[in-house]
Amino acid sequence: MRIFKCxxxxxxxxxxxxxxxxxMITKPNAVLGLAxxxxxxxxxxxxxxxxxxxxxxxxxxxxVNLDEYCGLTPxxxxxxxxxxxxxxxxxxxxxxxxxxxPDGLAEDAEAESAAYDARIVALGGIDLQxxxxxxxxxxxxxxxxxxxxxxxxxxxxxxxTRQANARFFNSIDEVPTHAxxxxxxxxxxxxxxxxxxxxxxxxxxxxxALYGPVTPEVPxxxxxxxxxxxxxxxxxxx
Length: 238
Ligand code: PGA
Known about the structure:
With 238 residues, the protein is of the alpha/beta class. It is built from seven helices and ten strands. The protein has helices at residues 9-26, 41-52, 80-87, 109-122, 159-165, 184-189, 200-211, and strands at residues 2-5, 31-34, 62-65, 67-69, 99-100, 128-131, 153-156, 178-181, 192-198, 229-234. Helices cover 32% and strands 18% of the residues. The structure holds 2-phosphoglycolic acid (PGA).
């Protein structure tokens, strides 16, 4: 495990972007596992700049996202497909058909989940998986549970997660109750994992995840077993 404790969010974003850029330069056809949430936004901005000034190239890159809300159309401004388009994909030379986000509208969510895992295997696995961490220790939408969910699956969101994400919606009632999330197997089989966290409100859960017991009650704690984990975080709120 490599840990970079940064002095602020700008430094977290720069460090995370430089690691993702290095992955893209060393393997131009890499499969990047991407994440939504507020933490990666700064890194995505820097990647856009790097792409626009020719430092990195997305033309052969494939991306697979961690999760998607159930019931939101791709053009809903709270869907994760929309988030990825507006925060990254629309501004770089990635081929949109090579960007994958679980289909939250799939009629058969089980079939969609199985197909998502199969696609990741067919792509040769994920080279670098970017992860945020929820206040309750979730990664993707793998919520605290009695057991680690290994496969991609539909999950009922915890009330704490819906409350945390309500800030993006008009009201808590609009926050979807379910999501499809990549399971632990694809995350743990990623060749490299990059966990980013920002601010004092994440300090305690980062500590628990990295140094506490490995338990499905703190889903991110499974990352202690990953052979190539990099953590980039700050406890500061500026
Ligand atoms: P955040 O969310 O980056 O918005 O803090 C992370 C997460 O809940 O996974």
